[in-house]
Amino acid sequence: MPVTLLGASEIRALAAELDVTPTKKLGQNFVVDANTVRKIVHVAAVTAGDRVVEIGPGLGSLTLAILETGASTTAVEIDHRLAERLPATAAAHGVPAGALTVVDADALRVAELPGDPNVLVANLPYNVSVPVLLHFMETFPAIERGVVMVQAEVGERLAAPPGSKVYGSPSVKAAWYGPWRLAGTVSRQVFWPVPNVDSVLVGFRRDPEPRGDEDLRRRTFRIVDAAFGQRRKMLRQALSEVLGGSGGSGGSGGSAASASAVLESAGVAPTARGEQLTIDDFVAIARAAG
Ligand code: SAM
After folding, report:
1. Distance 24 CA to ligand 1 centre (A)
2. Do 171 and 267 share a structural domain?
3. Given the CA of residue 56, which atom of ligand 1 is nearest to it?
4. Per the count of CB atoms within 10 A, which of 251, 261, 284, 290 is most buried?
5. Whose C-alpha lies nearest to ligand 1, atom 12?
C-alpha cells in the first residue's frame, strides 16, 4: 500500500481530536499543503536508502512526505500528544511497520538517536531553530546533509557570506560544519495557523573533514561570540577579554595589545571587524591563541 499524505481538513480534524490548539511557545505552525512538503523532500534529495531525522514532526505532514520516498525516519517531538499519535497516523497512511521511530523528547536535549540518521529534514520550531540545528550538527556527526524550513531572517543569516549585513554569530557557527545555502521560499499560506513571518528553505552539506576537535570548536565559538558581541568594535578591542592574556591586571590597553599579537600571528588584521572574517579566520585565531 503506497504512503498517502495528510490533507488540510484531516490535519485540522486530527488537531481537534487531540485537543491541540497550535501554540506559539512551541512554534507550532503546521504545513497543510501537500505540494510544500513534497517540495521540501525533493530539495533535500531524500531517497529510499536514506535514514532521515525530523525535528518537530507535529501532526505528521512532512513526516509522511519523507516516508513516501521509502526512507526510514526518526522523528523527535516535544509535545507528548503529537508524539503519541504519530505512529497511528503513519500506519493509517500506509507507512510500513518499522519505517518510523518517534522519540518523545526535547530536541535541544537529545544526546542519542535510534537509526543512525544521515539526513536532517525539518520544518523547525522557529523559536529554537538555530540552537537546535547547532545542537544536532554537533551531537550527530553522521548527519551529512539536510534541508530545513526556518523564518526567512534566520535562513538569510545562516547562509550569509562574510561582509554581508546579516552575517553574524549563527552564520559563522553554522559554517564550522560546512556550507549552507538558501534553497527556496515558502508562502505563509501553506501554514495553519498562518505565521506573521516569511519562511525559507535552507540546505547544508557537512564538510567531509571536521575543522577540528571539540576543544577547538568551543574555543572558536567563544571567540565568535566575543567578536559579534561587540560587532562595531575592531577585533583587537572586541577580543581583548578572550585573547587578552593572563598577565596583566586587566587594564584594557595591555589586553588589546596581547589580542593584537594573537590576531597578527593568525594572519588577521587587529583593526578588522568580526563581520569581515570567515570561519577559517576564526579558527586560525583560536589556534593562535593556543
Ligand atoms: N513538521 C510539522 C509540519 O511541518 O507541519 C510541524 C512543524 S512546527 C513548525 C514545529 C514542531 O516542532 C511542532 O510540532 C512542535 O511541537 C515541535 N517542537 C517545538 N519545540 C520542540 C523541541 N524543543 N523539540 C522537539 N520538537 C519541538
Report:
1. 10
2. no
3. 12
4. 284
5. 56
